[in-house]
Amino acid sequence: MKPLVFMSDFGQADGAVSAMYGVAYSVSEALNISDLTHEIPQYNVWEASYRLIQTVGYWPRGTVFVSVVDPGVGSTRRSIGVETEDGQYIITPDNGTLTHVKHLGGIVGAREIDENVNRLPGSGESYTFHGRDIYAYTGARLAAGVIDFSGVGPEVPVGSVVELPLPQAKFDGACVMGDIDVLDVRFGSLWTNIPREMFLQLKIKHGERVEVIIEHGGRLYYRNSLIYAHAFTDAFIGEPLVYVNSLDRMAVAINQGDFARAYNIGTGASWRITVRKSEGKGPVCAG
To answer: Rounded to two decimals, what is the model's pTM?
Structure first.
């Protein structure tokens, strides 16, 4: 038995998640099932991809993740299972959900789910709840040892796994520029795609200040000088700060506040963030 972890955009207001649990337990009542989250915004494949890379690598080898954010349910998009470099498995629609895992974690094997074998018996005429009928069922069979990874279905090239555009941060010698990948939802912090190593090329030390500029659609949303904090307690309550998040990337927050709500900041590649030494202490950005 291996752990089985569910993630979806279903929420908990109805019985969808419970039905997935029921299908899994029908495979084996000895399964150990957990939830990553069921609060992914509806149809937001990008956020599903990010939450997987945020979580998967901390689980033991053999753990099976079932990720269901599936705006194309019932279409010709593939249903796949992949094995990560660290030995976890992910069962999911092949719609970009695996983008971050593929680039940042690594995928060593991919298989298209054989629905003739790995589909809940009696569900063959249903095309709107593959999370229950295909993904939960296949994930449970894999976690319970009813099938091994080869039993998921025929092998497909890892390179064929669908990817979303994944913009890269850049350093121009004076500024680091990136985008706001996702929010730390509970606290409203902005998680960027700027790696810590790139940020440190600015030669900034903890306690020093940096200028942060946030733009969207050609409009300036925020510009201010922030402290580079080792911990939130380095800033006063209500003071904004820059810090290194749990994925070793740069983030922006308000100590005991909600930065995204305070300044109406969103996420995605169109939300651009620029960081440089505070005005008057460094060269001008090239772009």
So the answer is: 0.88
